[in-house]
């Protein structure tokens, strides 16, 4: 694996044979991607991958010799972005890592877009409730405020929601 990483032009941040050590290593080094074996000496590589994707946000590639449906499903729900099959062919490493990193970025962008959309929807609802506006008019007001201020609509929505919160707190006093 080490030779394949170097041959692909990458750097090795470190190696670990135990899940606990691997998790600590990923936390300390924040690599572009992590490669986990499906079976580690002290635990399950898929569970270690789940923890890495959930807490650290690093894309994980799973290296395994088996590809059963159960493993694939567990890896998918754990957030694994790509597979490498043993025996490893060095030519497959770089594309798998590139794919994992690209998928991870896309997934992160989609999650952020969804979170932004939720904030905009909340702000739109606040405008509708406060001023009795239709959904379309509330959206147009948010969009116009964003264009006039040359700021992203989500920033305007956050500011509006913050203002609503301050207004509610002040009214409660």
Please write out the topology.
Layout: H1 2-7, H2 19-29, E1 34-37, E2 39-40, E3 43-44, H3 45-56, E4 60-64, H4 69-78, E5 82-85, H5 90-131, H6 135-149, H7 153-172
Parallel strand pairs: 1-4, 4-5
Antiparallel strand pairs: 2-3
Would you report the number of β strands?
Answer: 5
Helix content: 55-70%
Biggest sheet architecture: 3 strands, parallel
Which structural class best describes the helix and strand composition?
mainly alpha
| CATH architectural group of the largest domain | 3-Layer(aba) Sandwich
**Strands across the major sheet, in which order?**
1-4-5
Oligomer kind: single chain
Low-confidence stretches: none
- Strand fraction band? 5-15%
CATH class of the largest domain: Alpha Beta
Give me the CATH superfamily of the largest domain. Response regulator
Mean pLDDT: 92
Radius of gyration: 23 Å
Helix/strand order, N-terminal first: HHEEEHEHEHHH
Structure commentary:
The chain has 173 residues and is mostly helical. The N and C termini lie far apart (63 Å). Helix content is 67%, strand content 10%. It has a three-stranded parallel β-sheet, sandwiched between helices. A two-stranded antiparallel sheet has the order 2-3. The protein is built from seven helices and five strands. It folds into two domains: 2-88, Response regulator (Rossmann fold); 111-172, Arc Repressor Mutant, subunit A (Orthogonal Bundle), CATH 1.10.10. The mean pLDDT is 92. The protein is elongated.
